[in-house]
Predict the structure.
Amino acid sequence: MGMASNSSGTGKRPDLPLSKYPGERLGLPEKGPQSVARVGRRFAAITVDWVISALVLILISGRSYFEISSSAIGQLQLLGVFVALQILGIWAIGGSIGHRLLRLYMVNVHGGRLDFWRPIVRSVLLALVIPALVWDSDQRGFHDKIAGTLLLRSS
């Protein structure tokens, strides 16, 4: 089955208008506070989070980063620390340490509280990498879409 087409024959779905900017369809501003977090800040935040995770594991295990990263067990431990810090950060402060340092925060896309399960689902999918690399026009990764979360700028 193919994609539905409109009467002009362009192949575009008439019920999904194109956004002028990420977050427009969600009623969010284009820039500034409460706008959708852009790729640069997201990448910087995840880098900060990975470095913090590595430092935590180095302190806990007494091993060097090279020792940790050179074994499959060490790599899984590092990923586990990363996921745990993501979940705890989102629960405790509304975003990971990297998010908060880069002035980002996590919300429930449907409004209201961020349910306890959303950070878990989001973080596990983030660890799988591929869901985070598939985005929609609002620059929401598949991990955010499944978890019903949205990463916004606080300033």
In short: Confidence is low (pLDDT under 50) at residues 1-11.
